[in-house]
Write a structure and sequence with these properties.
With 369 residues, the chain is mainly alpha-helical. It has 15 helices and no strands. The protein has one domain. It is 67% helix and 0% strand. Helix 4 crosses helix 6 and helix 10 runs antiparallel to helix 11.
């Protein structure tokens, strides 16, 4: 399969892409609502609720929880949508230079917004680049520049980015930053220190954008598979085989290079990429093949305005909803104790964030870069 002539492809609406993006954003606004943290209350210790709550938190350092897949899902689904959006522009006559300028401007805006979010809390200029928007600004432009290369070269370059990143971690030899798998004492931490003057918060590093560019590149390749005129069965088989191969390679590699999301080790990038592809295959099967389209709309409405709802929640929009909802939820749930009150309130906030997305969707208001 070659993508050197994407402008010749025929586009059709694939609702599973909207579903996948919407599910990812729905989970993100769930985190902003605070509901997930209520599931780890000590009262649930030893129950399935507590187990679910732990899966909705990042692993402290080594390992993999479901929540560690959400950012890869986000990076990946952006890549999946790229062949569709860019082919539409090329089919209407936009040149490569025009779309390159659009992609570059979009990347700069994403980088600016990602950086600006860190300045809101402290109320001063804070140089950090580890949130999803800042990371996406890098992965997006790299994936775009490779779009007209063959799939073979996209795969080669994606794995070279992973390999080069891992070698830097393994063989970086500056004292204090030469322990590849130790928090704040690795190559990524040194890069943060050089860029911003301080290590990244929570052991996260800005350099993650380089190896995780593979997620967006693999998303582009997956989008090309979905655009292809293959039968749906062949598309799913191709995605399942690719996803399982990534899982086998990644988990095998983890015996030598641990799975660490905070610094996006090679094993983490490959394993999480495999889960991305398998999740896309499942979404395509359940939504576009089994035709559960009505079910998908619940999530898709959130994915129609992903940038807006992410920024809204990140700039304390969830707190505004909480302030409105709290008097009413307290009235209903206060007699049942503080845990029920917290769960009722946070669910209300989550529902309020979804409701804003639904309001925009019903009025065909879509805010994009």
């Amino acid at each position: 399969m070659s993508n050197e002539n994407l402008s010749g492809q025929v586009q059709t609406r694939i609702l599973s892409i909207d579903f996948f993006r919407g599910f990812t954003m729905f989970m993100l606004i769930g985190e902003f609502s605070g509901f997930f943290s209520t599931l780890t209350n000590p009262v649930f210790d030893g129950t399935i609720i507590s187990s679910i709550g732990r899966q909705l938190e990042h692993v402290e350092w080594i390992g993999l929880h479901f929540w560690d897949l959400i950012q890869p899902f986000f990076m990946f689904i952006v890549g999946v949508a790229m062949p569709f959006s860019m082919t539409k522009r090329w089919n209407r006559g936009d040149s490569w230079k025009v779309t390159l300028r659009h992609a570059a401007v979009r990347s700069v805006l994403l980088l600016f917004l990602g950086w600006a979010l860190y300045c809101i809390g402290p109320g001063k200029i804070t140089f950090r680049f580890t949130n999803v928007l800042a990371q996406l600004s890098v992965t997006y432009i790299i994936a775009f520049l490779l779009m007209r290369k063959t799939v073979k070269w996209q795969l080669i370059i994606s794995f070279l980015l992973i390999l080069a990143s891992q070698l830097l971690y393994l063989y970086w030899n500056i004292a204090g930053f030469n322990q590849p798998f130790t928090p704040d004492q690795n190559f990524g931490s040194w890069v943060d220190l050089a860029l911003t003057g301080t290590p990244g918060g929570g052991h996260w590093v800005a350099f993650n954008a380089i190896p995780t560019s593979a997620h967006t590149i693999w998303g582009v390749i997956t989008g090309m598979i979905l655009m292809n005129d293959w039968t749906p069965k062949r598309k799913i088989q191709t995605m399942i085989v690719a996803g399982l191969a990534a899982l086998i390679i990644g988990f095998s590699l983890s015996h030598f290079i641990p799975i660490i999301k905070h610094i996006c080790t090679a094993s983490f990038v490959i394993v999480s990429g495999g889960w991305c592809i398998i999740a896309m295959a499942f979404s395509f099967w359940i939504i576009d093949m089994m035709n559960f389209r009505k079910f998908s709309i619940f999530f898709a409405v959130v994915g129609m305005n992903p940038l807006f709802i992410y920024l809204f929640a990140h700039t304390n929009g969830n707190n505004w909803i909480e302030a409105i909802a709290k008097p009413f939820t307290n009235l209903i749930s206060a007699p049942f104790g503080p845990l029920v009150s917290d769960m009722t309130l946070t669910l209300s906030v989550w529902g309020g964030l979804w409701g804003i997305c639904y309001f925009l969707y019903t009025r065909k208001i879509f805010i994009k870069l």
